[in-house]
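The instructor's notes for this session suggest beginning with a concrete chain rather than abstract definitions. Hand out the sequence below and ask the class to guess, before any prediction is shown, which regions might be ordered.
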Amino acid sequence: MTYNNYKNSAVFILMLSLTSTLSAKISSLDTTVEEERISKAQAHFPTVVNRLDALSHQFENDWRKAKSYGQLKDQAYALGNQLWKNAKKSIQSRGDFDDRALYWQRLKITRIIRSDTSSVDLSHQQREALVSLFEASSRGGNDLEFIKETDKKILLTGFDPFLLDRNIDQSNPSGVIALMLDGMVIEHNGITAEINTFMVPVRYSDFDQGMVEKVLSPFYISNSVDLITTVSMGRKQFDLERFPGKRRSARAPDNNNLYSGGDKASPVIPHLGENPLPGNEFVEFSLPVNSMQKSKGPFEVNDNHQVTTLSKTFKPVTLAELEKELAVSGSGGGYLSNEISYRSIRLRNQLNSSIPTGHIHTPRISQYDKEVTESIANQVVDMLKTSLAEI
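After discussion, reveal the predicted structure:
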């Protein structure tokens, strides 16, 4: 996809919509909490953090030599695309099942865009737009095209590492899975499927401003894929989260150390733009759960029904049992992993789509762990393969 085509896409329009409306000319933007962790990460595992540095070094030179804002947009778009490709190539060729190099390199480059001196006089709005454009392409946003001749099409999302103040060495199996599977063709019993993926930030603001809806809407409107599955890191085993809840109740911060404002006693409704997120308190997935539970691997695959409402914690069998309840935690919890599941299913229902949709919580790792992550990723691949006959 060319930049001219991409700039009209839903993801690009979304990213521009996340920018500030300020137009005063200023020299730089403040760096974010995420970007400020770079030096700590470099001190702990420099080989990984610096692995893709050729891209940021080249961009820094190009940034200072640019003659116009349009040239900077071209550079940001091309660099994000190249970073996504290089990160995929690195994880697929090295076989190290490590998503951290992409995460930290992206932050190095957004820090340059926010704060480095440019020969072009940039406004606050222009810098934010460049950050958004780069982020979208470096997350696979301009690569969501199915181009191979297969029987089925699968769209999958993963997440960045998170809770990095607890452990700077944290990796996220869902991010590894997204990098490993993007562009992959799988086959089972003669049925083939192409997989495309997108990497999601762990930031409340991106969710409130509609990232999930903008990325997924075109697929639900056209019914152009056969399965949409969001993936994140969860508990001890695999959990397929049957009843996602609407509200935020987790006390955990996002990657910029911002909090949802909700807790178990007073869960809060997220936003969709300027308005509260619409929809019922709970929704139900439509994953091919029976097939997925037949996958081979070291972990159990649970059909998780457990939810918490203001009145009780229980395991409803049907969605009807939740009609008069107020959500505290869905099956996926009260954090962004539950929320991406809720938002995707709510959107599917609103747009009357028939695409099977739901969330896979992977087993948890406490830090980077190649062996465990490899086994998790391989079991997700088998889970998708076994589902092909059912979707």
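Then share the key points. Residues 15-26 have pLDDT under 50 and may be disordered. Residues 69-94 form the longest helix (26 residues).
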